[in-house]
Amino acid sequence: MNLLNVSNVVKRFGGLVALNGVSVQVDRHELVGIIGPNGAGKTTLVNVIMGIYYPDSGRMMFNGRDITRMPPHRRVKLGISRTYQVPRPFSNMRVLDNVAVAAMHGAKELSVGEARGIARDILERVRLADKANLYPLSLSVTELRKLELARALAQGTKLVFLDEASAGLTGDELREILSVIEKIHDEGITIVMIEHVMKVIFNIAEKIVVMVNGEKLAEGKPTEISSDARVIESYLGRRWASV
Ligand SMILES: Nc1ncnc2c1ncn2[C@@H]1O[C@H](COP(=O)(O)OP(=O)(O)OP(=O)(O)O)[C@@H](O)[C@H]1O
Ligand SMILES: [Mg+2]
What we know:
Elements: E1 4-13, E2 16-26, E3 31-35, H1 42-50, E4 57-62, E5 65-66, H2 72-78, E6 80-83, H3 95-104, H4 112-125, H5 141-154, E7 159-163, H6 171-186, E8 190-194, H7 198-204, E9 207-212, E10 215-220, H8 222-226, H9 229-239
Parallel strand pairs: 3-8, 3-9, 6-7, 7-8
Antiparallel strand pairs: 1-2, 1-4, 4-5, 9-10
Helix pairs in contact: 3-4, 3-5, 4-5
Bound molecules: adenosine-5'-triphosphate and magnesium ion.
């Protein structure tokens, strides 16, 4: 059984069809990449799966449960979470408490002490423990991305969507965030990454979904996608130089 099964999802904004019958399956422990040009519908797909918007039609199952019309907080309790394209920490709380608050919104009922204990463990896992007592304002971009990931993990997540977690990072920063993502994946978390940096996604993903104009253009292993004529023509051709 797939962990996530999205079938034929349609989402319109007025006259604009942001998702036009999109179907995606994610297996347990899989690391899936979603690529596609600006405005393809990638973030909208995540928003619909998280319950920020309900789809106009289509169906979504998570871990055997129908989540199509389930409120967002119940989806989080089932183990679906996401990071934002632009990090959104609570700036008036220390890093530790940012993660502890997320833990308290997760699947289990926790005291503040228990939540802080979980937060400390998770900060170790994402290699941010040395910043636990700082405020988000003093973190680097890489550290803010790790904090986003830590907050998602704190909710007891099984599946996490990373919306452009590597955007704007280069060199050592990029390698650091990718190694944390791979570590979390090795620990058993299912990951769906939305990415613009092709060399990142082709190196790390087990399956790639290509979206264009609100539709799924192609889906397959990185080697299949990189040699798919339609994908090269509509998207990769323009970006291949950066691989
Ligand atoms: N809340 C909204 N209201 C109206 N239109 C929206 C809304 N959210 C997204 N859209 C539109 O839906 C389309 C898909 O947008 P979306 O943000 O999902 O694209 P994306 O693939 O994530 O792009 P990017 O790579 O730039 O992040 C775009 O035309 C966008 O303007
Ligand atoms: Mg987006």
